[in-house]
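Entry for the shared binder. Reason: the reviewer on the internal report wants the predicted structure included alongside the sequence.
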Amino acid sequence: MKKPKIEMDEPQARKIVRADRAPTEGYSLVVDGHFKSHHDTVEAAEEAGMKLKNAYQMLQIQVYDSATKTRTMIEWPAPAPAATAPVV
């Protein structure tokens, strides 16, 4: 007995983003040297980068600007210096 063939409408085209090539528009997160998420604004990219940096401080996270082809490092806020008491 043959199974009926299920025909689907036109499949939706997927936008494939390659991780080994620099994006041509917008801003992207670069995590440990690899392109990851893509964002339309620098603020959105920095916010996503800070969320990652807060969760995983050991990662090297940069924001890549495709217009100027530059990378900006997201720095983890250094802990405040402890107040030192004089040693007697």
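Summary line for the report: The chain has a mean pLDDT of 82.
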